[in-house]
From TrEMBL:
Domain of life, per lineage: Bacteria
Full protein: residues contained: 732 to 985 of 990
Originating organism: Luteimonas deserti
Every EAL domain range: 1-254
Signal peptide: none
The protein's name: EAL domain-containing protein
Organism classification: Bacteria, Pseudomonadati, Pseudomonadota, Gammaproteobacteria, Lysobacterales
Length: 254
């Protein structure tokens, strides 16, 4: 069967799930939000990485219904966090270019929030530079509308795309996420360090919170703390995990 048809079936049969990776404040390592990462669990238990199906989902347009499911599932997850007394933890959802262009609207997100009883700050959107490149004017208009509504917007994988400074200057962003390729060698490679230091300063100069992704050891964490980075995410602090494991961890049981 063609992969597109299998993806369509997977959505219908409920084979997608979300894993949640904590994003911590650097100051006290408290969890401020979680990034939702989609997984495709095949009936045989095998887990397919989004790297192996998101590109095709984008090409075929299936990313729109899949992305809608991701937002609804993230909203349900937020309710469970709030019920567990952790309504302060927001959920960041990755939105790809096609989805941002034809699957996301101000009214759609308002309806989602109203239906799920979600505070506006409960959902963050993580956008990559490809979102901005595809149709910059339309993306900017939508971002301004969402921002006006109080939706937090992050620019993801910053530094790997075209990284036009005009995006940072002209778009209503809240977070800049330094791509993990720069974070990896930050404690050992002066060139990576120079880039990260510059990105932290750039983000702060623009009033953005700076997130370092892919933090895998204590040396990286110490370096980022010393350089004044705001938030951190990575295997050193927590892997993407099922919602129940996240709830247990937030309750201090793990
Ligand atoms: O966790 P990980 O290896 O699985 O994620 C791989 C890539 O897939 C990352 O670039 C991530 O942003 C992307 N990704 C994960 N979940 C989603 C999703 O729900 N929507 C989109 N568009 N991309 C996602
Ligand atoms: O493109 P995006 O930044 O959304 O991708 C997030 C990806 O990074 C996911 O695949 C996630 O599983 C992965 N990831 C999260 N933390 C780490 C880490 O510490 N090291 C590595 N190598 N990957 C990570
Ligand atoms: Na992301
Ligand atoms: Mn990223």
């Amino acid at each position: 069967l063609a992969l597109v048809q299998r993806l369509r079936d997977a959505l219908e049969r409920g084979e997608f799930e979300l894993a949640y990776q904590p994003i911590h404040r650097l100051s006290d390592l408290g969890v401020v939000s979680v990034e939702a990462l989609i997984r495709w669990r095949r009936p045989d238990g095998r887990c397919v990485s989004p790297l192996d199906f998101i590109p095709l989902a984008e090409e075929s347009g299936l990313i729109v219904p899949i992305g809608a499911w991701v937002l609804e599932e993230a909203a349900r997850a937020y309710r469970r966090l709030a019920d567990a007394g952790r309504g302060d933890v927001s959920i960041a959802v990755n939105v790809s270019a096609v989805q941002f262009e034809s699957g996301i609207s101000r009214d759609g997100l308002r309806a989602l929030r109203a239906g799920a009883g979600l505070p506006v700050r409960a959902l963050h959107l993580e956008l990559t530079e490809s979102v901005l490149l595809r149709n910059p004017d339309a993306a900017r208009v939508l971002m301004l509308q969402l921002h006006e509504d109080g939706v937090c917007l992050s620019i993801d994988d910053f530094g790997t795309g075209f990284s036009s400074m005009a995006y940072l200057r002209d778009l209503p962003l809240d977070h800049l996420k330094i791509d993990r390729g720069f974070v990896r060698d930050v404690a050992s490679d002066p060139r990576s360090a120079a880039i990260c230091r510059t990105l932290i300063g750039l983000g702060h100069g623009l009033g953005l919170s700076v997130v370092a992704e892919g933090v895998e050891d204590a040396a990286q964490l110490d370096w980022l703390r010393a350089e004044g980075c705001d938030l951190v995410q990575g295997y050193h602090l927590g892997r993407p995990m099922p919602l129940d494991a996240l709830l247990a961890r937030l309750a201090g049981l793990e």
